[in-house]
Amino acid sequence: MIAPTERILNALRQHGHEPRKAGAGWTCRCPAHDDRTPSLSIHAGDDGRALVNCHAGCTVDAVCGAIGLRLADLFGPDPIRRNGHAPKTRRRGDGGDTTPKPERDDVHITASSTSLPDGVPDWAWAKIAHRDRSRWVIPERDASGVVIGQAIRDADGRKTFNQGGRRGLILPWPLETSAGLSADNPIFVCEGATDTAALLGLGLDAVGVPMAGACGAMLAELLAERHAVIVADADRAGRRGAMTIADALRARCQSVRTMEAPCAAKDAREAVRIGADRTAFLTLARGTQSLTSTPAPIDGAPVIVRLSEVQPEPVAWLWPGRFALGKLTLIAGDPGLGKSFLTLDIAARVSRGREWPDAPGVATTPGGVVLLSAEDAIADTIRPRLDAAGADVARIVALEAVSSVGDNGRESARTFDLSRDLPALEAAIGSVDGCRLVVIDPVTAYLGGVDSHKNAEIRGLLAPLGAIAERHRVAVVAVTHLNKSGGGPAIYRAMGSLAFAAAARAAWAVSKDKDDPRRRLFLPIKNNIAPDTGGLAYRIEPRAEVGGVDGCPVVAWEPGPVNVSADDALASDRDEGGGRTERDDAAGWLADLLAHGPRAARDVVRDASDAGYSIATVRRAKAAIGVVSRKPAFGGPWEWTLPAPPRAQDAQPPKMLTEDAHTPPSEHLGEKHAGFDGNPPKMLNGEGVSALGDGERLGNTATNAGDEWGEL
Questions:
Q1: Average of pLDDT values for 190-194?
Q2: Is residue 486 classed as helix, strand or coil in its secondary structure?
Q3: Which end of the chain is more exposed for a tag (fewer CB within 10 A), N or C?
Q4: Which residues constitute the domain of residue 133?
Q5: Residues 560 and 614 reside in one and the same domain
Q6: 374-405 pLDDT tens trace
Q7: What is the pTM of this model?
Q8: Per-position DSSP letters for 261-317, written without gaps between them
Q9: In this structure, what CATH number is given to the domain that contains residue 279?
Q10: Domain boundary among 570, 603, 629
Q11: Cβ-based neighbour number of residue 571 at 10 Å
Q12: What CATH number does residue 554 fall under?
């Protein structure tokens, strides 16, 4: 049978921890709390049981539960009943008595078994402990004096705890009513029974906690309206535990002070043993400044900033008038227009401190760059483009993934998630000297489980990102695609929720020049923190044409401004859409919205309005792609959902009803459509979906597609 000690060591290893040998036992990081330095000790008891103690205060129950063990797993077979029978007794006349003889031989009271720790007088020890045969029993109490657990000190000094109880306070009961009522004669709080008894032996009022940082709430209740001085052990765990207790006491006590023992001793008992007396402790305590009392935090309390205390400061710019430091900027455009080329050109300029396209000859401050790119490979795409753009790649890092450690201790990598991995982004920013730019391309690839069409969720996601930009004084540039809407202002064209454009302090559109297909326009959609600086134009040219080698394309900027508005440019893109209608665009938007699952009809109406679609247009789009209306629960809201995939043998290609009979189907359908591969209709090439007629259906699945809006 496996020994209890081996059982707990194996369980720790299985959960990713590595116990290390330390003297007669082992030490390990505690699995029950965020342990940065090993605070868990494991020893084998004389009776074979495993003795487990977390010096940070975790209970044995918590430690066992964290590694899948029960308290019973810490014990071996009962040594007294190892064969199932009570120990034999000697009969009268054979030279012995009739008292059963336990197999353990430490139960006999000897002089050594009743000896006390150095520096502790017997009368002081008797205030907090009583003898039980060969061992000392130390009751541990709650704030009302009820014994809730027992600590055991064996003859050899080994300490254990009664597993059936809870950890509590160590003190003579009842507590003196005058204890701690004066700041000059406070009540001392120390760690462990021997330290407590040592201070009691000096005639001081003292209360002990079982381990560093433990029982803070219980102690605060006991010492309410009294003056407390916490005597910290002179080590990292002791100091940290003292501050934990101080935090618990500050709201309840008259004053709270922390100190270490006199004579540079490691703890109170050692100080007494080497000669510290009552005066030494009181003098040190009286010379220690009281910690400032802080009220307990209140959930929902307002966080107020008095503007008279705010020092005004100007907006700091990465690219003057366009990209601000400490702010979020959005770039939106259709696929294939060179948005990634554009952001890498900006990154290269930042890394070298090169001039901006609209300010020739004006050098800037070089800085670091963090790239998140979900669509381009680092080795064959990003690095060659940066080299072609003349970047100092030593200043640029790519945040490729986030490491994840499983319960088995094995490390793996997962995709960065804005909803949970912002600490990793901050670490990446800190890894490059003088970071000034973070590029997220595209931002929709890093949303995790957040619905890109829900304003509240997107705002909740982007607000912490904006806080990181402000805290580190970096410009965060998020790239996104355009939605399929063909009408309305450009600010409604960013993919997903309007919150993307609303949260950004500046937003820019990338569009084709309708008169020159190779020319790209970089145009302002909004700018909340600077006057309109106008747009710029650029081309993607082979590097050799601009003085380079290897033929890797680069961004070639035009020197003059562009006066076309983003609204007009994006409207022109729609006009060149090959006969597409607003219903086609709305159909693509609706298919994308419902691809994540059913949505309440009211939410669809709201999101459609945010995206710039009228109710009538969305009704026609709903019918065109066969969206199903359903009411899952009696009295519940109506939902819209995509039709169930038809069986393969019943699937028929949908009819194409377009304004231009010669328009190739691929321009309307994209690469996939419901009915061909069993997937819900989804846009894959950004060019729209089938413009099905109002009476057309996909199979027989859209029986409710023509319901009136009264279902809302």
A1: 92
A2: coil
A3: N
A4: 122-286
A5: no
A6: 888 999 899 999 999 999 999 999 999 999 88
A7: 0.47
A8: -GGG-SSHHHHHHTT--HHHHHHHHHTSPPPPP-PPP-TT------GGGPPP-PPPE
A9: 3.40.1360.10
A10: 570
A11: 18
A12: 3.40.50.300
